[in-house]
Specification:
31% strand, 38% helix, 156 residues, alpha/beta, rod-shaped, 4-stranded mixed beta sheet
């Protein structure tokens, strides 16, 4: 087997010699590449390696951000006061860094007002232009007309 490590001359050794060398250094013999010809092994402290790997993964996870999706529901004939109230909530969600899923729900025969629903969503997109950008224009899916707005990146 080919042996690599910190205190080892990188070359091909017998398995018994490699195990003996690892024991002398009070470290572990770890197989790195079993499919290579000859197989590659490394002398190292395996528990320390696993610990460092977990630590690195934890740091990466801490740096990554979770994206939440907040929903706001409108009717096709939402009046001005309700619209303003929901627009303020949408603004707050985008400032927090959440994605926004705004949709108009059509009940029963109100599906005939789909143009009003589209106008309402486009007006919302225009009002929230400084806080987020439209990811997907209004699309009718069944009884819902859906639009996605992503928050704008904060400039530092």
């Amino acid at each position: 087997m080919r042996l690599v490590g910190d205190n080892v001359e990188p070359q091909v050794y017998k398995t018994s010699d490699a195990l003996r060398m690892a024991e002398e250094q009070e470290l572990d013999l770890v197989e790195i590449s079993p499919n290579a010809e000859p197989p590659v092994c490394k002398i190292m402290d395996y528990k320390k390696f696993v610990y460092m790997q977990k630590k690195r993964d934890k740091e990466l996870k801490a740096k990554s951000t979770q994206i939440t999706v907040k929903e706001i529901r409108f009717g096709p004939q939402t009046d001005e006061h309700d619209y303003e109230f929901k627009r303020k909530n949408a603004e707050k969600f985008l400032k927090e860094g959440s994605k926004l899923k705004a949709f108009v729900f059509f009940k029963g025969r109100s599906i005939i007002y789909k143009d009003q629903g589209q106008i309402l969503l486009l007006r919302l997109a225009q009002d929230l232009e400084e806080y987020g950008k439209v990811e997907a224009l209004p699309v009718l899916e069944g009884k819902r007309m859906i639009m996605f707005i992503a928050p704008k990146k904060k400039s530092k």
